[in-house]
Amino acid sequence: MNLLLSYTSIPHTTGVFLEKALRRVASVVTYGPTAGEDVFRAWNLLSLLSARKSHDIFLGDGSFRELCDGMPDSWRPDGFLFVESGILYRCEFMKKLECLKACYLIDTHLHVESHLAMAREFDVVFLAQKSFVPRFQDVLKRPVVWLPLACDPDIHSPHPVMEETDLVFAGSIQSPLQERTRRLKRLSTRFSVRTERVFLEEMARFLSTGRILFNASVRNDLNMRVFESLAIGKCLLTDDVPGLGDLFVPGEDLAIYDDRSLTEAVRTLLEDPGRRASMAASGRKKVLASHTYLHRAQTILSVLESFSCVLTEGVDHDEHTHV
Question: Looking at the domain 2-150+292-322, which fold is it?
Answer without folding.
Answer: Rossmann fold (3.40.50)
